[in-house]
């Protein structure tokens, strides 16, 4: 992956108490001709809230709100709402996130696309589909596959898959992929963001953690009609921490993505760097598919 020259693209704002220390791990998605970022932010109280910014077609950030747009509201998330991943399905933006109380679990909610575009933050009900399960890194697929919605989630250390008819009740849980001994993804793995639908299959970026707690990104290609079949998994990672903003920060040596967008042959990937700021990178589909 090639990094943007202007990295990092978003940094903490010392004047905003809720995002004065760290901003990272943004959902990234396209809607209404804009690229949207919903990002995890932490300030003095170390509670994660979500901030919002949008960018133009060249990924220049045009507007960033000075207030959080999603905050902890229920006992399940008293310690924060983390790592959002957004999937646009019909007229709604569905958001999966980590709801953090004493343990992390998956939170799901949605907002109407018109509300998101007009920045009216009328989020729907928050549901916790797997109560009591320590879980993170959920992503919802952008359309039904063979008649059912698909979700990947992460029960440490594996990426798991689940299915739903209504985006509320999720069942048929299975392990999709496990860490690989002796490699960059040997300790734990998690889906990076909703997958990209290609003719060749679902391109699923994921993060892998190694014994030194380095977070890197790689990818799997999953079968178009049966995503629990892994057609290919990258031997090597696509990007690893090496820039100063990736190696020095709140949690050093972390590249953690929650979303990417595809433009023709290019994939643009937003990522949190060292749990402190937000950067962008890009790669060519032709290159990785060949
Ligand atoms: C994960 C999550 C991410 C974070 C990463 C590295 O477990 O908490 O938000 O970026 O660890 O610290």
Q: Could you walk me through the main structural features you see in this protein, from its secondary elements to its overall organization?
A:
The protein is mainly β and 290 residues long. It contains three helices and 20 strands. It has a single domain (2-289), classed as Tachylectin-2, Chain A (5 Propeller), CATH 2.115.10.20. The protein has helices at 113-117, 244-247, 285-289; strands at 2-3, 22-31, 34-42, 49-55, 61-64, 80-89, 92-100, 104-112, 136-140, 149-155, 158-164, 171-177, 188-191, 196-198, 201-209, 215-222, 230-233, 255-263, 266-273, 277-284. The strands form five sheets. Strands 13, 14, 15, 16 and 17 form a five-stranded antiparallel sheet that branches. A hairpin with a 3-residue loop joins strand 19 (266-273) and strand 20. Bound molecules: beta-D-mannopyranose. The site of beta-D-mannopyranose (BMA) has 9 residues, from strand 6.
Summarize the structure.
The chain is mostly beta strands. It is 5% helix and 48% strand.
Number of domains: 1
The low-confidence runs, each spanning 5 or more residues with pLDDT under 50, are none
End-to-end gap: 15 Å
For this structure, what is the CATH homologous superfamily?
Glycosyl hydrolase domain, family 43
What are the distinct ligands in this entry? beta-D-mannopyranose
Major beta sheet, specifics? 5 strands, antiparallel
In DSSP terms (H or I, runs of 4 or more residues), the helix count works out at: 3
Which descriptor suits the 3D outline? globular
Mind telling me which CATH architecture this is? Answer: 5 Propeller
Task: Sketch the topology as an H/E string, one letter per element.
Answer: EEEEEEEEHEEEEEEEEEHEEEH
Strand content: over 45%
Oligomeric grouping of the chains? single chain
Amount of helix: under 10%
DSSP, total strands: 20
